[in-house]
Amino acid sequence: MKSTFSKQTARHIAIILCVFAGATACSDSSSSNTSVDPTTTTTTTTTIAPVISTACTETTPCKVGDAGPGGGVIVYISSSEFKCGPTLTDKCNMMEAAPGNWAVGSPTPAGCTAATDTTVLQCPRGTPDESALPQRGHSGIGGGLLATLYLLEHGAGEGTAPVVARAYRGGGKSDWSLPSYQEVERFCGYVHKWDDDMDRCERVASPKAGWELTTYWSSYIYFIQKALMAPAANLVTGKIGFVKPTSLFGVLPTRTFLGNVKTATAATTTTVKSPVTTVNATTTPTTS
């Protein structure tokens, strides 16, 4: 005669005993362990490039094309620091150019042409004492300020490009100057296109807006057949040419400084495996 003690009741009692006594209380029962495959969770962590403000500072991140701390535009950022400053003992990695209309509304110095809404301030670069000047000056990136100071110390008079550029105080900064040879090249390359292979500025059909397509002085010093010449960036042709320093060309104040550059890092993917979960499948003997 079969017991009235149902199989279902036996299972319920066995489960209750296991719960109160712990998993070992069921060790005498026939059981099998089933391993469930671990769950794989993939977490992708992406480092996002910082949001660049429209006006960067010496401490906030800057990129080419941003408004600079002096109110101009960042036209060049070097991948490594370069020497700069009045004695080439400072360190810089960025170059800022004054906006194209920086002189509009200001008094026009004697000897210069008036600046209007469509015309930049144009002045002669001056003819300083040739014997006191180094032949090539400081032509590299970062050398614009020192070369401009040389021009001022050796005869560049009122109404000349070096004097006008040094008097500019955009953003309250006092380190504005004429750009060096390579600095005016980089400015030309920003407005048009920089050719790394040819190491020169290259004219494009649609240059960046913001500056009149005219010619701008550099502070570079050079003698051609004993004649003092000065290079200038012609934004019409995209070329740098040597011209007489008495010519009237655009004055473009520039400055170099040490700024903060941040770039996005590559995305990283981390794979995490959850621990193996073991499920106890317990079989309770039936009662007959």
Give the structure's gist in a few sentences.
By secondary structure, the protein is of the alpha+beta class.
Describe the protein in words:
With 288 residues, the chain is α+β, with helices and mostly antiparallel strands. It is 15% helix and 27% strand. The protein contains four helices and 15 strands. It has helices at 7-21, 144-153, 161-167, 181-191; strands spanning 30-36, 40-45, 73-84, 90-97, 122-123, 193-195, 200-202, 215-217, 222-224, 227-234, 239-243, 249-250, 254-257, 268-273, 277-283. The strands form six sheets. Strands 8, 9, 10 and 11 form a four-stranded antiparallel β-sheet that branches. A three-stranded antiparallel β-sheet has the order 3-4-13, with helices on one face. The longest helix has 15 residues, at 7-21. Mean pLDDT is 76; it is low at 1-53 and 264-288.
